[in-house]
Write a structure and sequence with these properties.
By secondary structure, the protein is mainly α. It is 70% helix and 0% strand. α6 packs antiparallel against α7.
């Protein structure tokens, strides 16, 4: 009877590949956009937007021109893919809530991102605009990844498209860690935009100090301390996934890949500082940061889906639920770590 009551799964075979392609191009857009920032290639197209030095395809006379133009070409590729994903979601999957709404939000967020990109050029790479631009891009990628994961998972249970926000000991921890990763990446962009990347020599100390005496040094070390806190949160999330979701392969795979990506990002970040911030390591550090964010979104969506697909055999203790407001949230965050 339970199976008979389930709605039929919509045909998402072609749509899910469209959403995946849009997600991959958006990921590349974020990476190249960050390379524009860390290499100082923003002025490569002059003050012109959307043209580059007054032309659609200017002569590639230098690396800054090539990098800046590559970013704009990726914007041109991403636009029809994101629009196509939103249009297909609205046309064919309007009743699948966790496909249609994230797809429409991704389109809206992409439009905001394009406007912010123009503002970034107009304000000559203002640190605040640079950080907001990256934050917007990360949200657009998150919405597209939600659409992609839900589309791929619908055949497991069509109801997964109707509701997503289910929390247990794993999904709640992953959600909190995802918010930490998001904040960490945005503050990292602020460190770069404020030219604080070179404020510290050596790693893990900042020029031999735990608390540098310059504003740039404090920006830099603050980012390192935040990385440590977020790293612990992510490690707990991965451990929880292995301990409590070992039989759910998609969750474990997402957890492992995300954890390894974060570890790689830390190693590359350390080498980046030790070798004097070369462009290659800068770009690799950014690419891994975007990969960690993508992994966290996929990890969080899968963890929430498996609350419904395969509920854990325990709940958060009643003692945590009985406390009001922020106390309940605080207590649940720690008490839920044990079955």
């Amino acid at each position: 009877m339970a199976n008979a009551a389930r709605p039929a799964a919509p045909d998402v075979d072609r749509f899910r590949w469209l959403a995946l392609t849009a997600s991959l191009i958006t990921y590349l857009l974020i990476v190249v956009g960050a390379i524009v920032r860390v290499t100082g290639s923003g002025p490569g197209c002059g003050g012109h937007w959307p043209l580059c030095n007054g032309q659609f395809f200017p002569p590639l006379t230098s690396w800054p021109v090539f990098i800046a133009l590559s970013h704009r070409i990726l914007v041109a590729l991403a636009a029809p893919l994101i629009f196509g994903t939103a249009w297909a979601a609205w046309r064919s999957f309007r009743r699948v809530r966790w496909i249609v709404w994230p797809a429409l939000l991704a389109l809206a967020q992409f439009a905001i991102q394009v406007l912010l990109g123009a503002a970034t050029v107009a304000t000559a790479l203002s640190p605040a605009i640079v950080a907001i631009h990256l934050a917007s891009a990360l949200l657009a990628l998150a919405f597209l990844l939600i659409v992609t994961v839900v589309a791929f998972q619908l055949k497991n249970d069509p109801r997964l498209g109707d509701s997503l926000l289910y929390f247990d000991a794993v999904s709640r921890q992953v959600g909190i860690a995802a918010l930490g990763v998001y904040a960490l990446i945005v503050t990292g962009a602020l460190v770069t935009a404020n030219r604080a990347g070179a404020a510290c020599e050596g790693w893990p100390l900042c020029s031999g100090s735990l608390a540098p005496d310059t504003v740039s040094g404090l920006w830099h070390m603050g980012h390192r301390y935040a990385s440590g806190v977020v790293g612990i949160m992510l490690a707990v999330s991965v451990a929880q996934a292995w301990r409590l979701r070992r039989e759910n392969a998609p969750v474990v795979v997402a957890a492992t890949v995300t954890g390894l990506s974060f570890g790689g990002q830390v190693v590359v970040g350390a080498q980046d500082v030790l070798y004097g911030l070369p462009a290659f390591l800068n770009g690799l550090h950014v690419a891994l940061a975007a990969a960690v964010w993508a992994g966290m979104v996929v990890f969080a969506v899968l963890a929430m889906q498996y609350v419904r697909l395969s509920p854990l055999k325990f709940a958060v203790p009643a003692s945590a639920r009985a406390q009001p407001g922020w106390m309940a949230a605080f207590a649940a965050h720690f008490i839920k770590l044990r079955p």
